[in-house]
């Protein structure tokens, strides 16, 4: 009987019926989720939201949090492509856009929260829409910068022979983006997308349950569920929230990220085949679907028409666009060289509008900073240096274990298949949910919160390094590994001559994003509340948290300014130089 049932399932699998059933159920589930979320968004804004700590409320809360995270990721992806492409291709804009990205990455979620929440709630005073949009935006601020840095760095390191191929075939900017640059960036962008989703989950408890002065803003979700459970010391509810979060992350990994990682392997740049192919049971299932084939056939004509439209739109874009690729030095057609295209004019107008907006925002910040006294500036500076020491320590500790472990996972497709779900769960799990257990452990070990905050930072930032190392290891061409084996280069020599140079650009990206993540994590690592007791470590993170929750806008602006300046200076004098080394000395395409 069991054999017969198994045989029937296999028959459905190979016929494609099982895949079609899964797709139909998925479409119905998405439709149901949209209707439930739509009701919540359109609901009346309530002064206080009571979070139900019963187990039956968890599935609905998990659905709400999942939708917020996916909505924020879609916005982050579009932002990444537009912002990263603009910064990589326009030399003038690059001088402004990259420092802005450094600053935005250094601003913690609580730095965006007061203005965004108050503005959106005032725009939608009678519904939850403003508060929901604010939550999505704050999750976006935990996702976008890491992805954008990865895409920007990939665009800057596209091999010259690929750029020359685009020039030979007379690719316009759209063809170059979709057929050369996006495929080349795919592996790094996908792994950093997974890490960005993890970064968004990290602050889930803050984005769904927070206070501004005497106002309490809460949204139903797994983050607010955990926040209330921690406040009340409800251990069963905390365990239930952890289980629900793990199940959601595993489902995302198996249904989204693992198939995407396997699909992206076709963009590996190498002359030999991969030693062991990666696989995904869900991707294999979708390959048998008749519905997807019908949709693909129906969309082929639409895609052809869309491609023709894009070709007509970009036909007049000149080949001497202001970037650093060989296409910039290609001779322009007669009559086009001295005539700026619409895209160039639009980019310049957008650039000056951005500069004007920044100038206006800076003027508003200066008005707040005037009231800050000198002794307060000195106190903030001391706090900033203490947090800097903790961030540096956390990055060093994270690198010590993430570098060898990431290499081991990335170099072995078999091990990657086993470890990726585990790593994804560990990376995506909101570390603040574990803070109560970690605090209890630190108390048993008699470790004060000053040193303990380094451990709390490490819980959320070490994964940036690990994911980038894994992505870099998976992108190492097999022919180089085979050459190292042929010359019998093993052990430490192989690490220093092949692995480290090959992954160094990815490692630098991991360091940059991990550093930004550590600064952001300081706002929840340097001040922790559990069962009514507040543990506070002196640092810029705890200052920002207290200023944000107390609606002390002048102190908040001053603290964020000092933190941002510190991050920008480190990026300019440390990370930018390492990026230059990575693109010149350790670029495998040169």
Automatic annotation (TrEMBL):
Membrane-spanning segments: 12-34, 70-88, 100-121, 184-204, 235-257, 349-370, 390-411, 423-445, 451-476, 496-514, 556-575
Pfam short name (any one): BPD_transp_1
Keyword NAD set for record: no
Xref: InterPro entries: MetI-like, MetI-like_sf
Domain annotation ABC transmembrane type-1: ranges: 62-256, 380-574
Subcellular location: Cell membrane
Organism: Candidatus Cryosericum hinesii
Family (UniProt): Belongs to the binding-protein-dependent transport system permease family.
Main location: membrane
Keywords: Membrane, Transmembrane, Transmembrane helix, Transport
Membrane-topology descriptor: Multi-pass membrane protein
Protein name: ABC transporter permease subunit
Tagged with keyword Metal-binding: no
């Amino acid at each position: 009987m069991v054999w017969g049932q198994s045989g029937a399932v296999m028959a459905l699998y190979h016929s494609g019926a099982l895949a079609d059933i899964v797709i139909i159920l998925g479409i119905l589930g998405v439709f149901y989720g949209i209707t439930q979320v739509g009701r919540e968004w359109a609901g009346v804004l309530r002064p206080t939201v009571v979070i139900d700590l019963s187990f039956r409320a968890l599935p609905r809360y998990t659905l709400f949090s999942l939708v917020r995270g996916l909505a924020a990721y879609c916005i982050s992806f579009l932002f990444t492509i537009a912002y990263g492409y603009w910064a990589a291709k326009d030399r003038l804009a690059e001088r402004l856009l990259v420092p802005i990205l450094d600053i935005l990455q250094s601003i913690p979620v609580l730095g965006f929260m007061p203005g965004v929440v108050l503005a959106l709630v005032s725009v939608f005073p009678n519904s939850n829409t403003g508060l929901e949009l604010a939550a999505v935006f704050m999750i976006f601020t935990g996702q976008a910068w890491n992805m954008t840095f990865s895409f920007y760095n990939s665009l800057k390191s596209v091999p010259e022979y690929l750029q020359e191929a685009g020039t030979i075939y007379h690719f316009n900017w759209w063809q170059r983006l979709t057929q050369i640059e996006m495929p080349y960036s795919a592996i790094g962008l996908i792994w950093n997308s997974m890490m960005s989703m993890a970064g968004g989950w990290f602050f889930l408890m803050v984005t769904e349950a927070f206070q501004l002065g005497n106002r309490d803003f809460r949204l139903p979700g797994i983050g607010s569920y955990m926040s209330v459970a921690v406040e009340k010391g409800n251990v069963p509810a905390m365990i239930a929230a952890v289980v629900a979060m793990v199940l959601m992350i595993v489902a995302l990994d198996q249904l989204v990220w693992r198939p995407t990682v396997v699909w992206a392997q076709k963009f590996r740049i190498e002359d030999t085949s991969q030693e062991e192919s990666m696989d995904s049971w869900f991707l294999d299932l979708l390959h048998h679907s008749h519905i997807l084939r019908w949709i693909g056939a129906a969309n082929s004509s639409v895609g052809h028409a869309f491609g023709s439209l894009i070709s007509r739109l970009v036909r007049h874009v000149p080949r001497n666009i202001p970037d650093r690729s060989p296409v910039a030095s290609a001779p322009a057609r007669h009559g086009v060289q001295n005539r700026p295209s619409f895209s160039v004019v639009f980019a310049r107008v957008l650039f000056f509008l951005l500069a004007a907006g920044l100038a206006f925002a800076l003027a508003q910040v200066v008005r707040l900073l005037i009231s800050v006294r000198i002794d307060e500036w000195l106190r903030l500076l001391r706090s900033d240096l203490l947090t800097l020491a903790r961030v540096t320590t956390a990055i060093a500790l994270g690198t010590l274990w993430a570098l060898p472990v990431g290499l081991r996972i990335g170099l072995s497709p078999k091990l990657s298949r086993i470890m990726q779900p585990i790593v994804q769960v560990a990376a995506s799990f909101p570390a603040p949910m574990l803070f109560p257990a970690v605090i209890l452990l630190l108390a048993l070990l008699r470790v004060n919160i000053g040193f303990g905050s380094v451990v709390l930072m490490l819980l959320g930032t070490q994964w940036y390094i690990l994911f980038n190392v894994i992505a870099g290891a998976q992108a190492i061409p097999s022919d180089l590994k085979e050459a190292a084996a042929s010359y019998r280069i093993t052990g430490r020599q192989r690490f220093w001559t092949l692995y480290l140079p090959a992954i160094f650009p990815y490692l630098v990206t991991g360091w940059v994003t991990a550093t930004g993540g550590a600064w952001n994590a300081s706002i929840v690592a340097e001040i922790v509340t559990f069962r009514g007791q507040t543990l506070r470590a002196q640092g810029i993170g705890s200052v920002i948290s207290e200023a944000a929750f107390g609606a002390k806008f002048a102190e908040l602006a001053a603290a964020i300014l000092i933190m941002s300046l510190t991050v920008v200076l480190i990026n300019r004098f440390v990370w930018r130089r390492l990026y230059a080394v990575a693109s010149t000395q350790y670029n495998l395409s040169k």
